[in-house]
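Hi support team,

I submitted a single chain yesterday and got back a structure, but I'm not sure I'm reading the token output correctly. Could someone confirm the output below corresponds to the sequence I sent? I've pasted both exactly as they appear in my results page.

Thanks,
R.
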Amino acid sequence: MYTEVDVFVSNYTLIDPEIYQLWIEGCSSSEAVSTLHQRGVAKQMGASVELIASDVLDHYRTFALLERLLTVPTKLSEQMVFQIDEATKQMLIEKYYGLDDAVIRELLGRKLSSRHRKDLDEVAERSGAPLRCCRRQFDNVRRVFRGVEEMPGNVVANIRSTFLLSEPLAKKYGAVVFIACMRFETTKRKLQYLCFNDFYHCAQSIMTSWTYSCTGPEYYDTEMDREFLLELRELRILLDKEKEHKHLICMRLKPKLLEKSYQELELNFRLYTRALVGLACNLHRGRELRSLFIDLLERCVEPLRAGGWPRTDLAQFLSAYEQCALQMDVLREADLKSVWERYMKVVSQCLITMYHA
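Hi R., thanks for writing in. Yes, this is the structure output for that exact sequence:
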């Protein structure tokens, strides 16, 4: 008589997050062993350096096999070769597609071509990240861009469903994809003081207010609303009512602004209003749209900085500039109030971001 025995054989794949992070950062196996040794892992685990090295090599071989699945995250979710729990799968995907802000800032404005992949040494030098890490992020950005650029609907939702990323990370990729689709100029020397986070906030604002995103799922939020851009030309009528506009703003802000800011407003209002309205009137042209950030800097931010506007006073001025124009009959009669609101919502956000960066 034999006793029944249930036998279960498992090939559950163990992943050490610390070793995986070192692999993600572009460390070689020997560099990873040295780092772990410096962190005192061998002493904590009661293991020899040789055993730690063997474990690292085993993990690195596993990561190399997993990488072909990580390039298509849905395959990692569906495959049966590696027995990995869902939380670990998500960790693997999220870290693999993680973005280093310094690296992505250097990649903004660059063409996502194989030729440019060969020239990432400068990106590594300027960002301080290992070359392997820069290549991984370049490849991921290019993969995400190619995967969603032709997909209609919300780009962040498309990235999340295609690459299984968290919403915060998908939003970062969405901003990168949008900037690449619009071919915004971000590499000029004058713009180097802006970090990726600055461009991220500006891109989010533009995607929300100036694209087709709010018109239905069949439209793209990586495509500018051309009708809106054409309507912006009509805002030049505000320049004909410059004195009335200035009077309303001064009446509203005199009790609120510092004396220096109020004097600056009175003295240079014409300079500011012509820059803001003039910018709007030219955005329907592709070249002017692509140079949006450099134009905002040179025509608006630099004059405002020369005036020494404090943060709170600048925000109050931009708010009053928008609201006082809405009180004027000229925008209502031309049916341009919603156009003006859409325009100023983005410009105010971008100016405040760029001014205080």
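A quick pointer for reading it: The chain has a mean pLDDT of 91. Let us know if anything else looks off.

Best,
Support desk
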